[in-house]
Amino acid sequence: MDFKTYVRDIQDFPEKGIVFKDISPLLKDERAFQAATKAMIAMVGNNAVDKVIGIESRGFFFAPLLAFELSAGFVPVRKVGKLPADKISRTYALEYGSDTLEIHSDSITKGDRVLIHDDVLATGGTARAACELVESLGGEVVLCHFLLELDFLNGRRRLENYPAKSLMAF
Ligand SMILES: O=P(O)(O)OC[C@H]1O[C@H](OP(=O)(O)OP(=O)(O)O)[C@H](O)[C@@H]1O
Ligand SMILES: Nc1ncnc2[nH]cnc12
Question: Quick one: which ligand is closest to 57's CA?
């Protein structure tokens, strides 16, 4: 299946000059959604995984499905102010603006093997911040895992210390 045909370009969203990759057509098509989920599970290979991190918001579409299939726990990394218990934070730059991510301090056990999932790898700032949060809690990042990456923004450079895979590249 050519998954790229289920991703559409939206010009000037969320601000002028940005071409936004909208994955809604893939999510709403039951065959494409199921096939993409299975392909993303296959991308994990033989890596043993204890926890799957999903990054708010769009990382939440697939991360719990991956956790279920990998028999791993699911841990949300959320935007600032959403997590109720003791947490740690990291601020990072985006293709558009900046943001702060948080994770519960007790969500990772020292030595956990962690897969970090998000829908899009753009500049890599978001995924890098998530990796650093996991490592500061004693987790080991075994894979940064994306539905798609934007090659021209070279996010892999920000993730040079971590293995990274994506289902599609644009
Ligand atoms: O590689 P980067 O340049 O860091 O960009 C990638 C991030 O940008 C988008 O999230 P966004 O902040 O737009 O939030 P959303 O998931 O809530 O839509 C996307 O879902 C990734 O999380
Ligand atoms: N151009 C883009 N399209 C969709 N998600 C993004 N996240 C960061 N940049 C993006």
Answer: 1
| pTM score | 0.97
Note whether residue 31 is domain-resident: no
Asked if residue 59 belongs to a domain, the reply is yes
Residue 85 maps to a domain: yes
Per-residue pLDDT tens listing for the chain (170 residues): 999 999 999 999 999 999 999 999 999 999 999 999 999 999 999 999 999 999 999 999 999 999 999 999 999 999 999 999 999 999 998 878 889 999 999 999 999 999 999 999 999 999 999 999 999 999 999 999 999 999 999 999 999 999 999 999 99
The catalytically annotated residue of 95, 132, 135, 156 is 95
| Spacing of C-alpha 145 from chain mean position | 6
Query: In three state form, how does the secondary structure of 4-53 look?
Result: HHHCEEEECCCCCCCEEEECHHHHHCHHHHHHHHHHHHHCCCCCCCCEEE
Interface predicted TM-score (ipTM): 0.98
- How remote is the CA of residue 107 from the centroid of ligand 2, in Å? 27
> Rounded to the nearest whole angstrom, what is the distance from the C-alpha of residue 88 to the centroid of ligand 2?
25
* 17 occurs within a structural domain: no
